[in-house]
């Protein structure tokens, strides 16, 4: 059975978000990534598999090692989607702020 992974389910996990932050600055091997976590290496490998299936990470074979890179194009798609909600909430909070500035409590 071939399940398609959902990007938002993938980034809902704090460990996977931490992996994305690590790999955002430089490509890393699974071992180097796992060294940053207090979990078993197979657990980190499962997280890497999920992030790869969602195309948030791109694996690149380099000799015997696989280096994981952030997929900037996919990350931009996610950011663009979230941006719409950020703008909506900014507008709502700005309206609320304007109402609160003009609010005069009844005495």
Give me some keywords for this one.
alpha+beta, three-stranded antiparallel β-sheet, 3 strands, elongated
Q: Topology of this protein?
A:
Layout: H1 7-12, H2 14-25, E1 28-29, H3 30-34, H4 41-53, E2 57-62, E3 65-70, H5 72-102
Antiparallel strand pairs: 1-3, 2-3
Structure description:
63% of the residues lie in helices and 13% in strands. It is an alpha+beta fold and 107 residues long. It has one domain (7-102): Winged helix-like DNA-binding domain superfamily/Winged helix DNA-binding domain (Arc Repressor Mutant, subunit A), CATH 1.10.10.10. A three-stranded antiparallel β-sheet has the order 1-3-2. It starts with 6 loop residues before the first helix and ends in a 5-residue tail after the last helix. The model has no long low-confidence stretch (mean pLDDT 92).
Q: What is the helix/strand order? A: HHEHHEEH
- CATH superfamily grouping: Winged helix-like DNA-binding domain superfamily/Winged helix DNA-binding domain
- The share of residues in extended strands comes to 5-15%
Count up the domains: 1
Outline of the structure:
This protein has 107 residues and is α+β, with helices and mostly antiparallel strands.
């Amino acid at each position: 059975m071939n399940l398609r992974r959902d990007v938002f389910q993938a980034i809902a996990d704090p460990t996977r978000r931490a992996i994305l932050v690590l790999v955002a600055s430089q490509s890393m091997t699974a071992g180097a990534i796992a060294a940053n976590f207090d979990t078993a290496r197979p657990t980190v490998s499962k997280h890497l598999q999920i992030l790869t299936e969602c195309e948030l990470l791109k694996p690149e074979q380099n000799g015997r090692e696989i280096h994981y890179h952030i997929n900037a194009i996919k990350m931009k798609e996610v950011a663009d989607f979230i941006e719409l909600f950020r703008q909506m909430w900014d507008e709502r909070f700005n309206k609320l702020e304007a109402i609160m500035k003009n609010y005069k409590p009844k005495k």
